[in-house]
Amino acid sequence: MSLNKRSWAEPFKIKMVELLKMTTPEQRKKAIKEAGYNTFLLKSEDVYIDLLTDSGTSAMSDHQWSGLMMGDEAYAGSKNYYNLEKAVKKYYGFKYLIPTHQGRGAENLLSQVMIKKGDIIPGNMYFTTTRLHQELAGGVFEDVIIDEAHDPESLHPFKGNIDLNKLESLIQKHGADKIPYVCVAVTVNMAGGQPVSMENLRRLRELTNVHGIKVMLDMTRIAENAYFIQQHEDGYSRRGIASIVKEICSYTDGATFSGKKDALVNIGGFLAVNDQHIFEEASNLVVVYEGLHTYGGLAGRDMEAMAIGIEESVQDDHMKARIGQVQYLGDRLSEAGIPIVKPIGGHGIFIDAKRFLPHLPQDQFPAQALAAELYIDSGVRTMERGIVSAGRNSQTGDHYYPKLELVRLTIPRRVYTQDHMDVISESVERVYEKRKKIKGLEMVYEPRYLRFFQAMFRQLK
Ligand code: F0G
């Protein structure tokens, strides 16, 4: 046996477990029908392996759990707020912090403070809640991601990059005054967890400086993005995740953050900015929507757990194991011939439902149907990231027809073992064998906002 290639394992050991209920295919068929073929409407106790999201589903460390006991639950000026502020300054370098209950709370504040009616907000592909808050504030989102991001088979290593020519044309067309900021997500969730390169961020900074336009990060999975930079971008292989994360932030003016991903907490987020005026406006608004500016909808203990989680998220060993596990599952599925988005992204595997179910037109919701089928096969819960998630154009009322019609197998951090990954892969392979029999869906209930969370469907005959 050659020892050139050594196995690796998780840099933690398990000291508490949550027992899971096993169900039969008949029970699952009934459950998914009752849930209107929407995996968001299943009861968690009916799920075996939960890959719905990596949001708020990670396992906290013993250090984070002990942080919960250190909660200073004062209404104002909690110790934990200052600990969080210290972590944000140390690891991200932003001057001002406003905690929020989760990422979308920060998106609401940023959008309301910075966007005027008729403004244009360029971004590297939309994210559901981010775009909605931009629209509710009167803005119009414009996608300026590189074309490769919309192609599930393109092997571009930084598919999250902004196409600076597209951005420049938008600036020429509308004028810099109409663009309050460029919103850059690291990594890009809807493209398959794809990263942005440091070079792209640097050039974006140069271009926006020329026009006096701000750059605001959606830094929800920034440490995962940093890992891809470390692995694939020239000049970064010897740099630690922490230093790469800080450099990313240095090219921006502020950020919204959902702590429920990278920062390994079950709840929490923040808005962080360098501009005092934006900070003052947002810290006035936060008292309307979230709570006082030193807790923003969080308990003191939640802020403590997030402060500790931020530090844990930028450890190289942690990130290697986290993304290594996603990679392991992706490689297994690829070897089995399952069509997935390539390169494999940071937080999950995205199955290309258009290629998996070529017999279903997009308005029969192939990704939604496939997610339901996977649940019936094995109790593995995944989610749709296609036409249902994309919603409708608020002006014309038509469905958006995204190029990507995906099922996301999102991997929570530090929760499942490699054996779980094998079970998941086998289930996908089984469903792939019988793919021709999978039927399309019809939407029977459609909520107005973020419909993918609550929409209900019926199976077509
Ligand atoms: N930005 C990105 C890139 C996200 O993935 C999310 C949440 C948010 C913002 C909003 O943060 O949930 O804390 O309000 N994504 C979750 C997901 C819901 O499943 O991908 P939040």
How is this structure best described in words?
This protein folds into 2 domains: 25-47 and 316-459, Aspartate Aminotransferase, domain 1 (Alpha-Beta Complex); 62-313, 3-Layer(aba) Sandwich (Aspartate Aminotransferase, domain 2), CATH 3.40.640.10. The chain starts with 24 loop residues before the first helix and ends with a strand. Helix 5 links the parallel strand 3 (120-123) and strand 4. The chain is of the alpha/beta class. The strands form 5 sheets. It has a 5-stranded mixed sheet with strand order 2-8-7-6-5, sandwiched between helices. The protein has 16 helices and 14 strands. The chain binds ligand F0G. The site of ligand F0G has 15 residues, from helix 4 and helix 5.
Strand content: 5-15%
Could you describe the largest sheet, including whether it forms a barrel? 5 strands, mixed
Give the count of helical stretches: 16
In helices, the fraction of residues equals 25-40%
Q: Which strands sit side by side, in order, in the main sheet?
A: 2-8-7-6-5
In sequence order, what are the helices and strands, one letter per element? HEHHEHEHEHEHEHHEEHHHEHHEEHEHEE
Ligand set = ligand F0G
Q: Which topology of the largest domain does CATH recognise? A: Aspartate Aminotransferase, domain 2
In one word, what is the shape?
Answer: globular
Number of strands: 14
- Write down the oligomeric state: single chain
Mean pLDDT: 97
CA gyration radius, whole angstroms = 21 Å
Low-confidence stretches: none
Tell me the domain tally.
2
Which CATH top level class of the largest domain fits?
Answer: Alpha Beta
In the CATH hierarchy, the architecture of the largest domain is 3-Layer(aba) Sandwich
Give the CATH superfamily of the largest domain.
Type I PLP-dependent aspartate aminotransferase-like (Major domain)
